[in-house]
Design brief:
Layout (H helix, E strand, L loop, with lengths): L7 E8 L6 E10 L4 E9 L3 E8 L18 H18 L4 E5 L4 E2 L4 E2 L6 H13 L5 E6 L4 E6 L5 H15 L5
Parallel strand pairs: 4-5
Antiparallel strand pairs: 1-2, 2-3, 3-4, 5-9, 6-7, 8-9
Helix pairs in contact: 1-2
Length: 177
């Protein structure tokens, strides 16, 4: 399921001078057979990176992370994100990573998934645990909010990084608290 990925290219980077937590956001682009996608990699304090992806045509849509495309390419898209994680680790060997398994919104079927243990979260959890494992990262999951944090085991105080990440993301995303 996660054997193949899409080639991606760096599109641009925005730096956030003076922001409390967010340092920069780099956008990468890749294409499937039908869609062009953006992967946004946000770099936060404590060497924490959050990856988010969405179809480019939904860039301005308020629910761009929630809408299904119907392509059924999730395995290959997640594998692409894993390849990007590996690239980031080459540049920053102490990088840690966070994910949010957005809940599905399908306006055609009038369906909105609960934010608790979403389908996307289950796929990320399976992929990250099986492809990355525990040798290099400590895994912290909150099914209630479908969030996942991988803290790099090279940090001397893993619990401190986890605690700082929780404080930071509670401030940035109060809806997850």
């Amino acid at each position: 399921m996660f054997d193949h990925s899409y080639p991606f290219t760096k599109h641009f980077t925005n730096k956030f001078q003076g922001a409390q937590y967010l340092k920069e956001r780099t956008t990468y682009i890749f294409k499937t057979q039908k869609e062009k996608y953006h992967i946004e990699v946000e770099e936060y304090l404590f060497n924490i990176y959050v990856l988010k992806f969405f179809p480019a045509r939904l860039k301005k849509h308020p629910r761009k992370f929630n809408v299904l495309t119907g392509e059924n390419k999730m395995g290959k898209i997640v594998a692409t994100c894993i390849q990007l994680i590996l690239q980031i680790l080459k540049k920053n060997p102490i990088a840690s990573f966070g994910f949010l398994g957005s809940h599905t919104f399908d306006p055609k079927r009038s369906y909105e998934e609960s934010k608790d243990c979403t389908k996307r979260f289950k796929i990320y959890r399976y992929a990250v645990y099986n492809l990355i494992g525990e040798a290099y990262f400590s895994h912290f999951m909150e099914e209630k909010n479908s969030t996942y944090l991988l803290v790099n085991n090279k940090h001397e105080d893993i619990d401190l990084i986890k605690e700082q990440a929780n404080i930071m993301f509670d401030a940035i995303f109060p809806s997850l608290s």
